[in-house]
Amino acid sequence: MTTEDLTGFQTPGRGRGILDIFRWHYLLRLLIRKGTSTRYRNSVLGWTWSYVKPAAQFLVYYFVMGVILQFHKDIPNFAIYLFSGIVVINLFNEAFGNATNSIVDNRALVKKIYLPRELFPIAAIIGALVHFLPQIAILLFVCLLVGWVPSFAAIGAFLLGMIIILAFSLGLGLFFGAFNVRYRDAQNFVEIIKMLSTWTAPVLYGWAMVQATLPAWAFHIYMVNPIAVAVEYLHYAFWDPTVENGAGFPPHMMWYTVGALVFSAVMIAIGQLTFRRLERGFAQDL
Amino acid sequence: MEKTMDQRPRIIVDGVRKDFLLRHTHSLKEAFVARIQRKNAAPTTFQALDGVSFEVGEGESVAVLGLNGSGKSTLLKLVSGVLEPDAGTVLTRGRVAGLIEVGAGFHPDLSGRENVYLNAAILGMNEAETDARFDDIVAFSEIGEFIDQKVKHYSSGMFVRLAFSVAIHVELDVLLVDEVLAVGDAPFREKCTKKIKELAEQGKTMLIVSHSLGMVKDLCDRGVVLRKGKKIFDGPVDEAIKALQG
After folding, report:
1. What are the residues of chain B with a beta carbon less than 8 Å away from any beta carbon of chain A?
2. Which of A64, A212, A245, B98 could form a disulfide with B176 if both were Cys (CB 3.0 to 4.6 A apart)?
């Protein structure tokens, strides 16, 4: 058989990684629809929960940070400031958490049928994005009430923030999702990262307070974190236009943005490589 | 038959070895501690397949025979791409679809209709192809008006019939069949066998794993016999069955 012409032959089980979403876009669409339509199965309130949960979370933070700790004195329109940061954290936690569990949750399929397994974390992340839209709707509604007007700068900042946070979630999600198959310890790492995510970005306070406390190099590290950069872009998009003299971007924001984008891209590369390496064992280890 | 048809094989299995690792560590902590203590952290290996080679030609129906644990299902999973071999190569030509554990992709909270589309997509079909076959799929499954009910309300028989019906209507060149014919009641089983025969007559290539020797004799002309992961016979199906029993 060595002399045979092997054109047109494929090695089963070899995909093209995350690029497969283009060839398998139809399945991806169905997987996302499955995720969104079964999310609130057997639930009376259904999608209302997507509004209730962030609202409850917001009220708690607002009461503790704004009313008890009096943060609203330093930051005008503190409610909008807080909420536009929280939605980023929620999106990150949801996307990253779902992506991590996506392979294990789909074990029935992974063990029996070959399809590019990257589809599962990607569908999980897009599903999280769909889930995030109600929160943005609430935020927009409140912003419009206090006189927010859309601008190209605001929309651009919002989209850039989204790209950064989704890319970062995808990189981490691929990495931990693959790891989670063999060692369920990954889930606990992820819990810790999710718990810390709120505190690694200027959500409950302003970046100026961090700058005043940390040495310059530490502040640079703090600000190059993709979550912090995305939060700042959402502040710029939704909160800045609603106040007289907002905090604006921290200095060197362009470099932080480049840093965050590079960091997210590297994370996707690491995630994809790890995923590919561990993918060989998925069917056995599940 | 020998018009312009491609005479090259559809499946090539060449010197394939598959080891399963029997891991003794299940968490990072255990793996770490075992490494520190230099205990037998190295997982024990179990050889499921050892140097198996054969080819399946265009339009051939080949049975893979063997007792439990002989590596039949592992072999099918290697051909479908779910597992990768540790040594040797597996190559396929054309669209490969498996009747392997049908219903793996079904979601109980979706309707029969939604599940048909989802599973057809999982098996590699696009929307237009599924649309074109949808009526055939429903007719074959005999689900009828229940197609818009949630699958969790189906009886197990209905569930299996619909799942099988999706899988058998997938556009394919190579069909892998693993024991699924043991599903459903006798009339439905007969219908499935008939459908598989029909596909075989259309020149589809088949690789079939089954314990039902009668069915194997009926569907296949050639048999490959495995014993403890090694190929011990490859030839006409009658002789293969003798080799299995002997």
Report:
1. 8, 12, 14, 20-21, 26-29, 31, 55, 77-84, 89-94, 96, 98, 100-101, 104-105, 107, 109-110, 114, 117-118, 121-124, 126-127
2. B98
